[in-house]
Amino acid sequence: MKKALCLVVVLLLIGPGYAASAAKTVKIASISSGPDHSLAVATDGTVWGWGRNDSGELGDLTLKVHASPYRVPGIKDVKNVEAGSGFSMALKKDGTVWVWGEPRIARGGKALAGPAEPFQIAKGAVQIGVGHKSFGIVLMKDGSVWGFGDPTGGHLGSEPGAGLSKIKGLPPIASISVGGRFTIALDKTGTPWGWGSNAGTPLQPGPAVIETPRRIALQNGKPLTGVKAVSAGDRYALFVLRSGEVLGCGSNEFGLMMTDSGPGAQPVQNYPKTLAIGDVKQLSAGVTHALALRSDGTLWTWGYYDDGRLSPDSYLNRDTGNVAPEPIQIRGIKGTIVHIEASRDSFRSHCLVLTSDGTVWTWGDNDYAYGVGNGELGLGLLGNEYIGKPTPIRWTA
Questions:
Q1: In terms of residue numbers, what domain contains 42?
Q2: Do the domain assignments include residue 396?
Q3: What's the Cα-to-Cα distance from 309 to each of 7, 39, 291, 370, 389, rounded to whole Å?
């Protein structure tokens, strides 16, 4: 009894700093920025989320908004995550794929009364992706591609089923990138294939909906080749060639094709064209802006900049309204950048960056509608704030 009392006294004397010093700092290995919530995987395989939670996409079935990182219950040993619209998706280290949040998505088309807890939907996977129009795409070890969720708009190919459906008409695939409305798959020869909604012609001139995958071609009709990475946006796509050169096609809204988007400007870029961004090793195509990590380690952005998602420099006087078609360098991030994420939200967007020391940096808009904040920056803010400077997210386990 005396020993117990002594322990209590010692803890009281130490004060609240005891908990802080005993807490384990969370180091992050991968990130994903969705329309209204974000996810991160820690090096120990746990999943953390913050932002909107209307459908239980953060794993909290009370539907409470979390403005700071919250550990998602019921899921561990995770390798990668994807934040969708009202749902979340995780690829475990054993190759199984799990989803939670919006019921119809989580149960592969089966209606449920409320939000779903993490539920396995596939196995044997090597990569996952989500569209903000409520569908998910899975790349398997054998190079086949499968999809689930909302079948409208050609998201799930020509023969969608009630659950996980194979996307037919593809050669063996090496990687995938899922945009808001369409998917691009890169085959093992470096040729991209696309299907889904063709609004903005990211998949070349043709039908409004493309259910059977088609090769992305150049204006001369020859297939685009030599691609090492793809990033699909909402209505446009970006390609990194093996040389580091960047090509873009699709909607030029917000100057995303790096040309004037004002009255009289070309609204779309029907075929891939070179974008003047330099030698790039990683891209992230958001809805209204894009990020590029150059081979020299510098970070650049272009597109819509009204709410500080680009950088403090984006408030310079310009004659392009609130659009920056020319790249702007983002400064202020300490450490080596290893992963970049431009969020998939329209207008009220933000950015996430992961550095090699496991730190996540964020900036942009914390507002998702009519002045209401949802905590999507992960900085503990619930108001209609925007942060124009990259700021590290702090949390402990």
A1: 25-110+373-397
A2: yes
A3: 49, 18, 10, 18, 9
